[in-house]
C-alpha cells in the first residue's frame, strides 16, 4: 500500500472529489462530467461510484476551461489538449537516450 507521503507527491493520485475539483478548476461539476464524456480523462471511481480527480486531471481540466472560456468548443479543446500532450511526450522520448 502506498505511504501518505508518496500519495501527496503522486500527480495521478485521485485525491479530489468532484465538488473540490470543480472549485479548484473554477468550473461546474457538469463541465467536469462533460470532459469525462469527451474522453479528456477517465476519473477514478470510489467504491460508491463517485468521481475522484488527480492533480494531473485538474491541470487538463483547467486547460480545457481556459480554451472554452476563450471561445473554443469543448470537442476541439479536448482534441487540441490530447494532441499537445502526445507531441510533448514524443519530444520527451526523442530527447532521452535510446538504449537497445
From TrEMBL:
Gene3D superfamilies registered for this protein in UniProt: 1.10.1660.10
SUPFAM superfamilies: Putative DNA-binding domain (SSF46955)
Record-linked InterPro entries: DNA-bd_dom_put_sf (IPR009061), MerR-type_HTH_dom (IPR000551)
Domain HTH merR-type: 15-83
Cross-referenced PROSITE patterns: HTH_MERR_2
Name of the molecule in the record: MerR family transcriptional regulator
Amino acid at each position: 500500500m502506498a505511504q501518505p507521503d508518496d500519495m501527496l507527491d503522486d500527480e495521478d493520485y485521485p485525491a479530489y472529489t468532484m465538488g473540490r475539483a470543480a472549485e479548484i478548476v473554477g468550473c461546474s461539476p457538469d463541465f467536469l462530467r462533460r470532459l469525462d464524456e469527451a474522453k479528456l480523462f477517465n476519473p477514478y471511481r470510489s467504491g460508491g461510484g463517485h468521481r475522484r480527480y488527480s492533480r494531473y486531471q485538474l491541470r487538463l481540466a483547467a486547460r480545457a476551461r481556459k480554451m472554452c472560456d476563450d471561445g473554443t468548443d469543448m470537442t476541439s479543446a479536448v482534441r487540441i489538449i490530447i494532441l499537445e500532450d502526445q507531441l510533448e511526450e514524443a519530444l520527451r522520448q526523442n530527447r532521452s537516450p535510446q538504449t537497445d
